[in-house]
Amino acid sequence: MSINWYPGHMKKTESLLKEQLQLVDLVLELLDARIPYSSSNPKLANLLQHKKRIVVLNKVDLADEHMNKLWQVYFQQQGLEVIQVNATRSGINRLVQESVDKVFKEKAAQLKARGRNSRPARVMVVGIPNVGKSTLINQLAGKGSAKTGDKPGVTRGKQWIRVHDRIELLDTPGILWPKFEDAATGIRLAQTGAIRDEIVDQQELAWNLLQTLQTHYPLLLESRYGGDVTQPLIDYIDSIGQARGCLLKAGEIDYQRIARILLEEFRSGKLGRITLEKPLDEVTA
Ligand code: G4P
C-alpha cells in the first residue's frame, strides 16, 4: 500500500502486468464486494483483449448479502463468470476450480482439436492494492497445492503453484492501480482502506460514510451507536461522541477519535455487513 500512483509508476505497473498476462490463460479479477465499481480498473478489459476473466467478489463477509447477489447478477448479465469469496476462509478452492473449469473448457477443447494434450489452466490473480490478492493466493496455495517451479524458457523467476490437478496459479499477483476518476470513487477507496489514510482527511471520510449509513443502513447504526439516527449529521456525530466518551479535556468532542472509530468499525465489519455501491447507479451516496 505504500505506492504513490504517479504516471511513471502506472506505466511500469501496466507493462509488468502485460508481461504477466502473456503467461496465463485467464485471470481472477478481484473486486472488493463493498465497492465493486470503485475497486475495478476499466483498463483491465483492454489489457486482457480476448483473454477470459472470472470476477471474484472478495470480502463478501463484510458486504451486504443482498447486494452481493445483486452484483453477482449484474456481472453475470454481462456474460461474466462470477464467484463470491471470503479469501480468509478455507474451502474456496473447489469454487475457484469449478469456475476455472467452466471458463477454460473452450480453450481446452481447442487444444485437443489441435492434437495437443490437455494441460492445467494457467491462472493469475489481479486487483488493486488491499483487495485481497495475497490472501487469495495463499489460500489457494494451501493444502493440496505445490510449487511447480519455473517453466523453462518463458517464466524465469516466476513460481507456479499447482492447485489440484487442473490449475497452475502464478504466485505473483497482477497489480492494478486504483481509479482516480472522481472524488466519490477516491472516497470509497479510502473508506475501505484501499488508499492510504495519510493522504485523505479522516474526518471527511468518516462523515461521508456516516451520511451514507444514515440513508442506507440506519438500523446498523442504531444498534451499534444508539441515538436518533434521523437527526442531522452533525448532531448525530455529537451523539456518537457522547455515547462513546470521545471527549477532550475541556469537555469538547474529540471528532478525530470518532472518525477513527467509525472507519475502523466499518472496515473490520463490527458495524455490520455494508455495501457502499449498488449496480447501475454505482455509488449509493
Ligand atoms: P493485497 O494482496 O491485494 O494487497 O491484499 P491482502 O491479501 O494483503 O489483503 C488485505 C487485507 O484484507 C488483509 O487484512 C486481509 O486479511 C484482508 N482480507 C483479504 N480478503 C478478505 C476477505 O475475504 N474478508 C475479510 N474480512 N478480509 C479479507 P490485514 O492483514 O488486516 O491488512 P489491513 O486490513 O490491515 O491492510
From TrEMBL:
Domain G: 122-183
Pfam families, per the entry: MMR_HSR1
UniProt keywords, alphabetically: Cytoplasm, GTP-binding, Nucleotide-binding
InterPro entries: GTP-bd, GTP-bd_ortho_bundle_sf, GTP-bd_ribosome_bgen, GTPase_MTG1, P-loop_NTPase
Localisation per UniProt entry: Cytoplasm
Source species, domain of life: Bacteria
Role: Required for a late step of 50S ribosomal subunit assembly. Has GTPase activity.
Similarity comment text for this entry: Belongs to the TRAFAC class YlqF/YawG GTPase family. MTG1 subfamily.
NCBIfam families xref list: GTPase_YlqF
Protein name: Ribosome biogenesis GTPase A
Phylogenetic lineage: Bacteria, Bacillati, Bacillota, Clostridia, Eubacteriales
